[in-house]
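new request in #modeling-help
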Amino acid sequence: MVPLHTTFRAMASENELQLWAEDASQARAAAAAAIADVARIEAKYSRYRDDSVTTRINRAAGGSAVAIDTETLALLRYADQCHTVSGGLFDLTSGVLRRVWDFSRASPRVPDLLSLAAATALVDWRKVEWDERAIRLPSAGMEIDFGGIGKEYAADRIASICTERGIEHGLANLGGDVRAVGFRPDGTKWRIGIRHPRIGGELIASLELANAAVATSGDYQRFFEIDGRRYCHVLHPRTGMPAMHWQSVSVVAPLCVVAGSCATIAMLLEAEAESFLAAQKIQYCAVAANGSVCGNAVTAAHT
Amino acid sequence: MAATSSGAGAADEQSKGWAKTSLACSRSAASELDIGAANSAGALVAAALALPGVMPATAAAEVAPDQAVVEFKYFDYRDWQPGADRMRVISPGLYLLKPLSGSLAIEGTLVYDSMSGASPLFFNTLSGASGEGVKDYRTAGDVRLTKYYDRVAVGLGAAMSTEQDFFSRAVSLDVRRASDDRNRTYAFGVARTWDRIDPTNFAVENEKRRTVDFLLGVTQALSTNSIVQSNVTYSTGRGYYDDPYKPGDTRPDSRRVFAWLTRVNQYLPAFDATLKFSYRLLRDSFGSVANALEVAWHQPLPEGWSVMPSLRYYTQSAADFYFDPPFPRGFVLGRSYTADTRLAAFGAFTPGIAVAKTLPDGWSVNLKLEYYRQDPDWRLGGSGSPGIQTFSARWIQAGFSKTF
């Protein structure tokens, strides 16, 4: 067994890939194919790219329908399912809300009710017209944004590509979204540390997994604080206001897209998150607003 | 992470006395054509003639230094582009110059660039919401031994640079000869560089590149108050030039770069200040032509202070095989192609300000701030490449040195 460990930059984050293969050339070939697919997904779905599918769809908002391929259709179907299961909290059209929340300003402020109302008026996945062949956003200004599942989807693609190439032990981490292939070569589970939501570089909990994924949604990626209240980028599609109940939620699931969307939904469900996660029969580790750790997946809590 | 094309051309212009091997400029300033990182020894040769700080009023008669210098520099680079990641590099470095005898001196630099990222020890990886992770590093060093004769100085140098995806070694030789009246110095330099590229996405493996650089220059004191220097450099290389992180990027397997740099320093007694002016023309076998103009005003102030505002304008035409995004129509497989915006047509401005203070016992401190902004509309004559966004960067350089 030959190990390979590499880091690479994609999707605006630092990513890493570890895998074990029979020999070096098998390892390199699998890694090259996996990393190339991440680049392909980024080019195809990034809203920052001029020629991406997302940009084309958004530019045609209020106009004509845009043809989609099977991959895009699969993602839309998955997003639709998340929308249903979450009672509308997971909404692929909620990206427009970032226009009224400016987290990078030197002196940030909470947007006024009028701006929030104008933005939330453009958020409604149910209004989007789509079928197996095409998608159309009915009003100009509406947008879809795959940012909420893009990285997780790419992590799952890495796992598929590695498995197709005979890799039986591997771990991919795309900016904190983790997907494991198999167990560690010695038969033990992968040990995953959960980042402390308030203290950089530290861990708050850890968990173990194999043949599964873990994704974390938190209030510490983009945020500002006013009068002791934190306003983060996880925004409720109907009110446009940020989730406030949890500092972070990490979800373990067989697929990274499931882990990621459940983590986001849990953040938005706020106090109802735990019953939702229990109903989905999903393992999780959540850090409440007061810093206490709860969840059924935790191997160890570090306080 | 571009191991290949990078903007150290900008770096060695901006950081004249300092390490030509600065990573941040070499890898991420999406700016000027590179005669730097791919040819760091070429830059070494050029820098051998870049007199640190302010050029003296007389041509440098080749005299061995009689004092040692230790300099510590801290370099902080950050860039940004609408919709793209911010990149941040922090690079501390050390420079040392030591006379070994009355006619021999050794100098060297050591730079360590790291973009932090705590590596989990016990855990296999960390899950979090902030997109952090393990990042990249670079160590680079160079050393040069210079022997001083009556009117001639001969220097022999070696340099090495290691990154996660790029490994470079170079050797150089430079000879400087002063004229009888010591108002003129001729310079000749040659360097050979070996690069190896091993990208972290495994798109290619163990690719190589070899370059030879030549330099011919003359420095002439025009009067007691003015000095001019003109250098011509020619670089020829063969090997791997593609950017392995950009799919479809295919560049020729050879590259020749011709550059002509002229600098003038004029001391103005009425102000007790020096006006510095430089112009560089660069032609590249990739098809690009670049012009850079820089003006600076070095003003000494009381109590050992000095301040130097500067402004640089740079304009570049696109490489022959640069195609505006998206993927070009009529493209023929087997021909060179790049969508790398560093090879597009654009113009850029760099305003900057440097402040220094000499302290007792041979100490001195300095601080330099520069802001870079690039825009296709700023290309001289208009017609910059369409479809590329503006790019901005800033760098802060702070340092202190001791002469003893």
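bot summary: Chain A has a mean pLDDT of 90.
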